[in-house]
């Protein structure tokens, strides 16, 4: 692995999260991007746009998988023969490091869970390492995501809880803000959302200190994001809610009631767990077909 300041970062997928990461790190790292929808890469300046996956992997030292879980098998199948000794970083909810390692072999994999606040450099990102990733790999991944906010290293068993709390939290906040007058947003966030959201974090396994800190970072970052993007909270809620994903599952439980935040976070955690199980089941069926 080259020294981190010279590492070339390849990002596969330029949706909301992939694009946000690219925009924040491109001034520090040489950045290469690819998306199967070429329209998503057209207006990203000061990066290299790869014509295909193979070219991106050939150029990059680090490959960030910023793609939807349903696209994982196709993408991993395409890159597995050229990934060599690259560091692979996945930001997909519900996809374990072991799942990726089973397809890519003894790949060095780091799993991360950022949230939309990376767009303004206020993200809260959890990281965990796979079986073959080194301490240096984890350090490089932290260096990358420190450029988009605050990072925390967790055990992988906590990543479903992290997806529900740190990943889906902004969506829950935006939904609740969309139901009240703008003048009330700061007071509501400080006095109602943060305490209930912190309690939700504790319920899914974070320490009291972690839950309180991250609830404050996320909630206050959400308010900054709303101002900077000049978008309504309802529009941002829609942006961070993927069909069949963890935020959607949590919103069904939230029902616009701040006191139901613990229910929403738990529902999101269960959905993250289901996504992990679905991915494992799919891979097992795939292996049986090949055999």
Provide a descriptive summary of the structure in words:
With 291 residues, the protein is an alpha/beta fold. The protein has helices spanning 16-25, 53-59, 72-79, 97-104, 135-146, 159-167, 169-177, 185-203, 208-229, 233-239, 246-254, 261-290, and strands at residues 8-12, 30-34, 48-49, 62-65, 87-90, 108-113, 123-129, 149-153. The chain folds into 2 domains: 4-153, 3-Layer(aba) Sandwich (Rossmann fold); 161-274, no CATH class. The chain contains 12 helices and 8 strands. It has an 8-stranded mixed sheet with strand order 3-2-1-4-5-6-7-8, with helices on both faces. The longest helix is centred in the C-terminal third of the chain and has 30 residues, at 261-290.
Describe, in short, the structure shown.
The chain is an alpha/beta fold and 291 residues long.
């Amino acid at each position: 692995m080259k020294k981190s300041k010279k590492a070339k970062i390849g990002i596969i997928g330029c949706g909301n999260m992939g694009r946000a990461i690219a925009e924040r790190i491109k001034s520090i790292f040489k950045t290469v991007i690819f998306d199967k929808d070429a329209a998503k890469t057209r207006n990203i300046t000061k990066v290299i746009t790869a014509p295909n996956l193979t070219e991106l992997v050939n150029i990059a030292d680090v490959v960030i998988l910023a793609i939807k879980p349903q696209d994982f098998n196709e993408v991993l199948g395409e890159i597995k023969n050229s990934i060599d000794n690259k560091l692979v970083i996945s930001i997909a909810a519900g996809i374990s490091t072991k799942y990726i390692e089973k397809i890519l072999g003894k790949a060095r994999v780091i799993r991360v869970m950022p949230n939309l606040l990376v767009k303004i450099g206020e993200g809260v990102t959890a990281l965990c390492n796979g079986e073959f990733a080194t301490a240096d790999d984890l350090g490089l991944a932290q260096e990358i995501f420190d450029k988009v906010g605050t990072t925390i290293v967790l055990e992988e068993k906590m990543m479903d809880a992290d997806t529900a709390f740190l990943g889906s939290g902004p969506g829950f906040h935006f939904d609740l803000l969309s139901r009240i007058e703008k003048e009330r947003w700061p007071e509501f966030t400080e006095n109602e959302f943060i305490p209930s959201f912190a309690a939700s974090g504790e319920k899914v396994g974070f320490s009291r200190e972690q839950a309180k800190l991250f609830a404050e970072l996320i909630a206050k970052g959400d308010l900054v994001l709303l101002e900077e993007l000049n978008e309504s909270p309802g529009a941002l809620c829609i942006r961070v809610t993927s069909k069949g994903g963890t935020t959607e599952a949590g919103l069904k439980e939230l029902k616009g009631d701040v006191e139901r935040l613990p229910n929403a976070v738990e529902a999101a955690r269960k959905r993250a767990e289901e996504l992990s199980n679905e991915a494992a089941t799919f891979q097992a069926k795939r292996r049986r077909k090949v055999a």
